[in-house]
Predict the 3D structure of the following.
Amino acid sequence: MESAIDYWSAKALLEWQVELGATEALCETPVNRYELAAPAAKAPNTGRAGETQKPGSPPPLPPKPKPVDPVAVARSCARAAPDLAALRVALADFPHCDLKRGARNLVFADGQPGARVMIIAEAPDREEDRAGRPFAGPAGDLLDRMLAAIDLGRDKTVYLANVLPWRPPQGRDPSGDEVAMMVPFLQRHVELAQPEILLLMGNTSCQAVLGKRGISRLRGQWGQAWGKMVLPMQHPTALLGQPALKSSAWADLLELKARLASAEQG
């Protein structure tokens, strides 16, 4: 049994037949119109705003559904979250990001909420997707050693999150639309975690927070966003692939350490 087609498809097929010259619809069996009773008078059809519709004119078209703005929906959901636990639930329930369909886990955060430093990375890799926490695997091990070198650690003094909580397929870079719909959640995440400094690791995090890309140019330069001091630097994954970048990353860590120390003295 064939399924019924929707209104718009049926309308398009009818218009196509009219263009071909069809002027009358035929039934499967003949109809003797002389035997039909005279039609009863009908009340005039009304169109929009009570206007009388002319006899024989087609019925008014049903309104097309309004397109959904995922960014506006995300902004509303994020703003309604009173705490981090509620924000995590809001992310899990957000229906407009297809990345969640292919990911194993929602990678929300790790470390200590309320820590002075919040590290924001790009999107989960395979190890993070499996573990369900940011900075797992070799890149996470390297980050832990880097933080320990300036007396920081995810157990007490650092909070970690990603721009996107779900891993893109095959680890591809997230699209601009995917980043845009996650920014309201990320901004609310920062508001609820209340760090002093944001450490942005990689291009995607700089794009989400600063609206800029080009980590090689941005790294090591202090800025401001969302009422916080911001320092971009290379992601540990880039350091594993290009060891020559480690010297500049060490310089960025020393900048971070000095800024934290001066804030304590001030």
